[in-house]
Amino acid sequence: MGSNDFQPNRRLTTRAQARNALEDTVSQVRDRLCIFDDRGEFYGLDRRVFVDPIVQALREHPKMRVSIVLHDPRYLEVRGARLLEAIRSFSPRLEVHKTNSAVRAFAKGFVIADTMVVLRRPHFDAAVTVVDYAPEAVHQAAALFEELLANSEPASLASVTGL
Predict the structure, then answer these.
(1) What's phi and psi for 2, nearest 5 deg?
(2) pLDDT over 90 at 20, yes or no
(3) DSSP string, the chain
(4) What is the pTM of this model?
(5) Is cis: bond before 92, omega within 30 of 0?
(6) Cα distance between residue 25 and residue 110, in whole Å
(7) To the nearest whole percent, how much of the chain has pLDDT over 70?
(8) Residue 157's pLDDT is what?
């Protein structure tokens, strides 16, 4: 993101804008990227412009981790060959988890990049995304992500396991 983009709170109204914000954010991650989404389709987690920068960052930063928690990982099984290949190469530093039934009704997606930004989707059914650089927003999202991760299990992606 450009230096002019560091507004404390910015509202994006289209999926294209949200994907661009994710791509810009991913290109800056050095430590940890956390993504919570329903299927991974909204942000296009199967796209080259998402996966290639993650692979490059994982190569350049040996302690970096990427954790993706989804309600339903089937979209990635079908469309995410590039991401699944990256998981094979970088697991356990690149992981996908599936939520359990206790948190399946939670319908607010978000992305956390290091400790600098959170992209929040108020509801899975809406294209609106809020880009927030406020430290308290990032901290709250990180705590929520850890709770969601604790209520999930590693996704058994058929293309990764070879089944």
Answers:
(1) -80, 160
(2) yes
(3) --GGG--SEEEE-SHHHHHHHHHHHHTT-SSEEEEEESSSTTTTTTSHHHHHHHHHHHHH-TT-EEEEEES-THHHHHH-HHHHHHHHHHTTTEEEEEE-GGGTT----EEEETTTEEEE-S-TT---EEEE--HHHHHHHHHHHHHHHHTEEE---HHHHT-
(4) 0.90
(5) yes
(6) 12
(7) 91
(8) 78
